[in-house]
Amino acid sequence: MFAKESTPPSNFIRTIIEEDIKTNKYNGRVVTRFPPEPNGYLHIGHAKSICLNFGLAAEYGSHCNLRFDDTNPSKEEIEYIESIKSDVRWLGFDWEDRLYYASDYFEKLYECAVQLIKKGKAYVDDLSAEEIREYRGTLTQPGKDSPYRGRSVEENFDLFQRMRAGEFKDGSRVLRAKIDMVSANLNMRDPVMYRILQATHHRTGDKWCIYPMYDFAHCISDSIEKITHSICTLEFEDHRPLYDWFLNELNLYHPQQIEFARLNLSYTVMSKRKLLELVKEGHVSGWDDPRMPTISGFRRRGYTPESIRNFCERIGVAKRDSIVDVALLEHCIREDLNKRAPRAMAVLRPLKVVIDNYPENQVEELEAINNPEDPNMGSRKIPFSRVLYIEEEDFCEAPPKKFFRLAPGREVRLRYGYYIKCEKVVKDEKTGQVVELHCSYDPRTKGGWSPDGRKVKGTLHWVSADHSLDAQVRLYERLFVTANPLDEKQGLDFKSYLNPNALQTLTSCKVEPSLKNIALGSRYQFERLGYFYVDPIDSSEGKLVFNRTVTLRDSWAKIVRKSEN
RNA sequence: UGGGGCGUCGUCAAGCGGUAAGACACAGGAUUUUGGUUCCUGCAUUCGGAGGUUCGAAUCCUCCCGCCCCAGCCA
Predict the structure, then answer these.
(1) For the whole model, what pTM was predicted?
(2) Which terminal residue of chain A has fewer beta carbons within 10 Å of its beta carbon, N or C?
(3) Quick one: A130 and A32 in the same domain?
(4) Residue A311 to residue A314: CA distance in whole angstroms
(5) Is the shortest CB-to-strand distance from A540 to strand B under 7 Å?
(6) What's the CA–C1' distance between A232 and B50, in Å?
(7) Structural domain span for residue A309
(8) Does the CB of A315 fall within 7 Å of any strand B atom?
């Protein structure tokens, strides 16, 4: 693990940076930035970008800025800014005193625009949005010049000043770069630089009624911050000529834009728009619903920042579109929690077991190891008594082949307890449901060892009925039933692939008494079941609510699945 | 049918003219008081296809095929 972390895999961005350092392109500097728009919560795709940008900076002994790309007040909110900051921090990254906003640069941006106007490289256009679209042409047909393209520098300057002064209404005019209406790259067909928006900005208030567009604001913001490598996703590749054009025309410090493929994860969706839709339509409880691929969702699910960082490193960085198997993410969190999470016993679907030959009222304290992977975590005592609960699925009246658990007449081990043998099955007369088991125990097998060396095939987890604590447990599965919900075959909407069983809430779970006063947000492995997280929001004094982060690998389930097919 | 990208194992992904890393997944086996963990073993004679250059090609050239992105006053 450490070897892996100390020698990060090679990728094309690192190669570019190494080359730039060698040729002294930026005097050996490496400065990056993470530039989210505060219009939604961060998802694991952003985590990839965060790890990349902050990681690269750290690797080259430099820094990465956090900059909010807040140029569109109609979509952006303070709530998102706060969530983004806390998510980046939670992931383990630090922007120190370099928290920036594109809106901090509005005045500078305005000056740049004026400069382009004076250079004859920008003009105010009175065409409507629809007309601009028409004049732009199509993918295969060139565009044509706006009738306003030939305005004088003086007129453009005057109009632009009056746009800023609020003399015109929304949508009536825009400022455009004068580039090339017949360019094969649509982004170069006189892109809009400023639009009029009579909106209150979350930071600048009503100071502005014109707002810069992404292409104009982003390159200049990068330049102001002396970024060296401006890393963004593939869809901006076509924008690079424009990025370069603005900086060249303005004669500004010029960072290098580099594009990589965004992360896609199987069994989920990654676009903010779609995630917002799930939130707004109530398919999930919020942005931090543990079913969501958001950073806050994974946090609430019980994922650790380490596991997510490790995942981001393992998936690599490249330019080809891909869908990473969510099994890799699950592997990363299991790997982390296996080493760190203390073990405990919890019974999700309790089946009552009475040990008939165990003395009534007797209680024994048995020793249980907290984490077999880490002896330093010590051990604890768990009470054993005559009436216990075991997992419903650990008993089978007519066991199939390879079923090693409890069955009539069969002996199994209770973990850290005794060997018990099923003597009698009690069923509900009406439903035929097994409601209780009567077993006998072998007093010589205390702790789970047999002096005569006889072996049992199965070891079950259990809790003492009188000593156990009640708990609510939420079992989470994948949000979608299909690996690629965007593959909308037969015209099906991605939401038609939503997994109706992605959340199952169990309310009559029983957990061992040592979990009495555990900390909110702590993580446990419930033996044989999976890793669980104490939900910090819904748990309270005397009320335990656990979220299942991920199940343990389950080779028995695999066998069952195979035999079913 | 314009422009920009991309095609290496089921999924990610190294490789940059010297004869296909690694991870996940999967399949066997060993160990095991978690059917967990750990540990072995197997898993691309082949790099989208076809030609060509070369002693030698996933790497260079040519053509072809496929996939993604672009026609917001979103980012």
Answers:
(1) 0.96
(2) C
(3) yes
(4) 5
(5) no
(6) 36
(7) 272-342+471-564
(8) yes
